[in-house]
């Protein structure tokens, strides 16, 4: 019997766009391994003398964890801002090195008022994590994507609809 090819689904987007909600729903629905960069980075700062911003450290740990799970044959969902072409390329390399299918997903919230409301009213689900302000979200470095990828707008799509679209595309 041939083992199924594992999937790496990388969900990126600005803070408050809805990527964590979508990722959690996808992980629960598909029983996939979950790698969340915010959790990794917060743990690193909690358990070391390092301080934020950590630069590539959290992502590097994430690449290693995801790669190991993929090589074990598990599907992996990654949730992170994924703001730069270099981070996106590294996720693709992580998946291809593990012989996995890779789906790149960008979650957006096209309704700026709704996006701002989410940023300003959300609660912290990782102890110690400092959430960005709306101004910090607006000023964040976020490069345009340079290749085809799935874009999901949570201003018009429910999380369950996003999950179905992601799984169909991956």
- The CATH top-level class label: Alpha Beta
What summary fits the major beta sheet?
5 strands, parallel
By oligomeric state, this entry counts as single chain
pLDDT averaged over residues: 94
Judged by helices, strands and strand pairing, the structural class is alpha/beta
Q: How many β-strands, per DSSP? A: 5
Instruction: Point out poorly predicted stretches.
Output: none
What is the overall shape? globular
Q: How many H/I helices?
A: 7
The CATH topology turns out to be: Rossmann fold
Secondary-structure element series: EHEHHEHEHHEH
| Percent of residues in helices | 40-55%
Looking at the overall shape, the CATH architecture is 3-Layer(aba) Sandwich
Using the CA coordinates, give the radius of gyration: 16 Å
Distance from N terminus to C terminus (CA atoms, Å) equals: 22 Å
Beta percentage is 15-25%
The strands making up the biggest β-sheet line up spatially as 2-3-1-4-5
So, the CATH homologous superfamily?
Answer: P-loop containing nucleotide triphosphate hydrolases
